Structures are given as C-alpha cells and as structure tokens.
Amino acid sequence: MVIDEDLEHRVIDAMGLPIIEIDVGGSFHTGDLAANDSLAFRRQLDAVRIIYANRQAIMMMGACSLTELIGPYGRFWPDNSLDVLQADLEALSRGAVFKAETILKRADGGLLSVIYSSWSVPHATPPGRRFASLTDIGDRARSEEAIGRLQSDLAHVGRLSLMGELVASIAHEVSQPLLAVVANAQAGLRWLNRPEPNLTELKAALETIVTGGRRATDVITNLRAMSRNQPPTFAPIATNHLIEEAILLLRHEMERHQSSIRLNLPQEPVFAMGDRTQIQQVIVNLVMNAAQAMSNGYCWRRTLSVRAFLDRMTNMVVFEVEDTGPGISQPIQDQLFESFFTTKTDGIGLGLGICRSIVEAHGGEIKVRSRPSLGATFSFTIPSAAGR
Questions:
Q1: Rounded CA gap, 70 and 21, in Å?
Q2: What CATH code would you report for 138-231?
Q3: Potential cystine with 56: which of 18, 100, 136, 168 (Cβ 3.0-4.6 Å)?
Q4: pLDDT tens-digit readout, 184-238
C-alpha cells in the first residue's frame, strides 16, 4: 500500500492530539539493538528521524516550526528514557501498538512528561514508518508532587502543634535530669573535697550524672527530630524502644491529666519498618487524645493501656491505645479521621487525619472501636521489618 503523504498529513493535522511521524529507515534492524549500552544505541538511532509533526506536537515539543523538529529522533530522548524508545522500536518489528509513560526532551531544552503511544501502518510502502501521539501528563505529575508537599507540610504542622502542647512536659522532663546532674555533681565535689575522699560515693554520683545527661539528651534529640520537616526515612524500628520514648515525652502530660499508663509490650524483639519520627508522632497523638478524653469525661478511673504485638498471619506490627474514657458514638467515629473534624473546643481537626495519612503511607491501616461509656481503642498497623 503506497502512502499518499499529503492526505496522511492532512489527517494528522486535523486530529486534536499532538502526533509525530517517524521514519525508522530501511537499514535499521531491531535485532541489532544494543542492550544496556546507551552510546551504542544512540549510534544506531542515526537512521531514525522525525519527518512530520502536526501543529499540536510542534507546540508541545517547544519548537517554533516544523523545521526545528525534522531530523534525528534520538536528540529528543534523554538517556534515562532510552529503554522506552528501544521497546517502541522492538514493537515496530512486530507491528504492535506501543504505549508507555516517559520523559522527552523539548526543542527548547525543557523536559516533558508524556504518555507515549505509537503504531505502524501495516504493509505500508515505504516500510519503517511509525506514528506517535503525545499526551502531556506534566500537570498530573505536578499535581501529585504538590499533593505530596502538602501532605508533608501538614504532617509538619501536626508535629509543631504537638510540640506546642508538649512544651510544659518537655521542660519538665529536661529540667529533672539537669537538676539531678547539678545535685550529683555538687555531691561528688563534697565527697572529693573531704580529707579522705570517698571514691565509692564519687563513682556513684558520676554514674548518676551520666544517666541524667543521657536522659536529657534523648529528650532533646526526640524533640529536634519531631520538629524537622524531612522526607520520611524507612528503616527497621525497635517497637518497644519507640513506645517507651514516646511515653517518656508524655509522662508529665499524663500526670497533669491524672492518668496512669499501663504498657503491654512483646517480650521478644519486634521490629516495624517505617519512619521512626512519623510513627512516634502517631503514638504521641493517640496517647494525648486518650488522656484528654479521660480528663474531659469525668472518669473515676483514668487508665490508659498501650499495647504492641506482631500479627504473624499478616506480618504486621499492631499498635493499640485503649482508654477508659466516655467512649465515642458511631456518628462521630465515622468522621474522626476526616481533616478539620474535631470534637475539641480548641482543636483544629488535623491530628487524626495526619495519623491516617502517615499510617496509610506506610502500607498500614488505622481504625477505632468504641462503645459509649466504655472507653475507646485506637489501633494501627505498620509492616514488620521481618517481612521486607
């Protein structure tokens, strides 16, 4: 079938999609394609040329005229997209339709994210002609990137909000070990300045100073990590240590709400796979919410239970925070994880929504179960590091 190029070009021009026409060349054989060698493959691309493009394609590719596009095809393909072009040319040998997402280089030097679709005209003369349509997905990619930044920023806002609520607790936790350090240092000096220095008591004082200093450092390190707006870093996390650190931060907050904490942690080491700071943020949020609920609910018994265990059936680490508060009605349960929904008079409704985003980004699930007057249990799952 001999192609009437004028008719063909009029059809391409009339189409709404950006379309380019490629001549692969009669001497190009897909069996000779160089595998995993971009330089060799680029030399083979000399025979592949753009011979036509409609107005939409010219504009999308950042060119001022058709003349700018006509010529070697390889110049529009960055190295990290060559595998897509190679797969396209292999599809040509089978007469198959090809479709993939890729990145092209524009005539003006910019980069273009597209859905690239190509096809051939069967039994055409001359052979080796192929057409490609381009669908710009840059807007979608930019939207997804913006959404990712927004989620990160909201998580950061949540951490800063938590920090504001924890200022008194943190000040209390840091001041206690620092006061102990000063007291033990003074005692150590007294033991040392005696006519006969008591080295045993001095050693004990110094060991207490080291313990207090480490405790203060741990609190400050945890605070700094929570305040940073950094991309998540996934790594194995010791579950018990993570929970104990969170409870250490909240101990004074529990005292303020006259609540006690009961820990039920696995005896064998259990490791979750995730971002330490973000998972700890979820735990702190849930524990603080539970303490506030018991405080506001006029409960005679204010006991908060924190549990963690490995579900071997699903290979997920399960975290649970259970309170003895007033419970949550079903209509409120249905809205709890929605952004900006809150039952607190001074709340902004971001905490639980951020918790859900963090947990789901880790591949887990967060949920609540409750009956009025019988407390509430929030639970969430994080993949086990043993399964990765």
A1: 10
A2: 1.10.287
A3: 18
A4: 788 888 888 888 888 888 788 787 777 667 766 765 665 565 555 556 678 999 9
- Residue 367 has which token pair? 């949920």
Say if CB 112 and CB 104 are below 8 A apart.
Answer: yes
Region 69-75 average pLDDT? 91
Each residue of 88-144: pLDDT tens digit? 888 877 778 889 999 999 998 889 889 898 887 655 555 677 888 888 887 666 656
Tell me the C-alpha distance between 152 and 149, whole Å. 5
Given a contact cutoff of 8 angstroms between Cβ atoms, the answer to whether 69 and 52 are in contact is: no
Say if residue 266 is preceded by a cis peptide, omega within 30 of 0.
Answer: no
CATH pick for 5-136 out of 3.40.30.10, 3.30.450.20, 1.20.1250.20, 3.30.780.10:
3.30.450.20
Locate the domains of the chain by residue range.
5-136, 138-231, 233-388
